[in-house]
Specification:
This protein has about 400 residues and is α+β, with helices and mostly antiparallel strands. The protein has a single domain, classed as Cytochrome P450 (Cytochrome p450), CATH 1.10.630. Helix content is about 50%, strand content about 10%. Strands 1-2-10-7-3 form a five-stranded mixed sheet. A three-stranded antiparallel sheet has the order 4-12-11. Strand 8 and strand 9 form a beta hairpin. Helix 9 packs antiparallel against helix 13, helix 11 crosses helix 12 and helix 13 runs parallel beside helix 17. The longest helix is centred in the middle third of the chain and has 32 residues. InterPro entries: Cyt_P450, Cyt_P450_B, Cyt_P450_CS, Cyt_P450_sf. Keywords: Heme, Iron, Metal-binding, Monooxygenase, Oxidoreductase. Belongs to the cytochrome P450 family. One of its GO terms (molecular function) is oxidoreductase activity, acting on paired donors, with incorporation or reduction of molecular oxygen. This is Polyketide biosynthesis cytochrome P450 PksS.
Length: about 400
Amino acid sequence: MELTTIDITNATFKANPFPFYARLRTEAPVYPVTLKRFGRTWLVTRYNDVLEVLKDERFVKDPKNAMTPEQLKKAPRMPAMFKPFSKSLLSLDDPDHARLRVLVHKAFTPRRIEQMRDQVQVVADELLEGIAPRGQMDLIADYALPLPLTMIARILGIPSSDNNKFHRWTKTFLSAASNPNPLVIVPAMMSFMRYLRKQIKERQAHPQDDLITALVQAREGNDMFNEDEVVSMIFLLLSAGHETTVNLIGSGMLALMEHPDQMQKLRNAPELSKSAIEELVRFVCPAETATERYAREDVTIAGTTIPRGEMVLAVVGSANRDPNYFDNPDTIDIARTNNRHLAFGQGIHYCLGAPLARLEGQIAIPTLLQRLPNLHLARKPEDLRWRGGMILRGLEALPVTF
């Protein structure tokens, strides 16, 4: 296969991108591809080079801090209604990024996440209570999706009476990566933003014990979030935080069913759940690449120069299979100890939702194995449908029997 023929956003490619990345690590560790919306984009694939991109200040998140005036004229324009998302942690550089990160840490604390442990267990048990008598399910739609979605709604403080429309909006956004239909997405986005602004105003008037209140009240000296920043933070938690957990549970379970010895090992020793989740995150890579970065100047990596202003994707899915850093990287070992994977990133943009994703994975997958001891795939792995898209890697559906 010619390297130049690859479309990394294609759903078929997503099913097994790892042989292509193995070739890149050997033949072209910094490699240009063309993406429809962004033009030429550079894939960085070796572990040490990926780590460099994630931590090097010459690679920035905001294209305005990297591009020449001529490049900015040609760059894709953001519709006005999406402008609040330009204030997201994912799209800012320091000092703006540092300011928001300090504030969000005051709201999204490890203690708040750990308090969710019992609730995650309750939600997992409730879902499986309803599913178990059926003997079959779509593991994505019936379990991997509703579990973190229910949890993020509870963490935010969405009233239970609004759960149905909250779930409907969120599913519409999640479908956008593989089926970007503006006629569906734009009305849902506008309705959801109106809803969030109403919730924010209610918390300002009547504080509650939830994350929206915590974001509204978070302050550092005289500094606070403005309304657009709270909206963008909630969207970040829903997209970057929530969908990666769906992919971790879904793709992680597929990987275990394809490696029955490891599945049985985890079923017999649930105390391995922490190392098992780290290994599944490394192996399936729910986010195949880090979010986009831009070269602030010409930067040479592995003998290849990335020109100023051009987009770079640090391929963590490739770094996590680099044989120079992992023994038998294409094999699952749920008891792996030397596992310094990059699935949650590194540097100042390290994943804010990592503690929540770990917690949900550590409960969702072992609970599934314990409650459904005869879990099997309902179709061949090669017949499963994967979602297309640039950053994330996950299944459309995962039919199972038990």
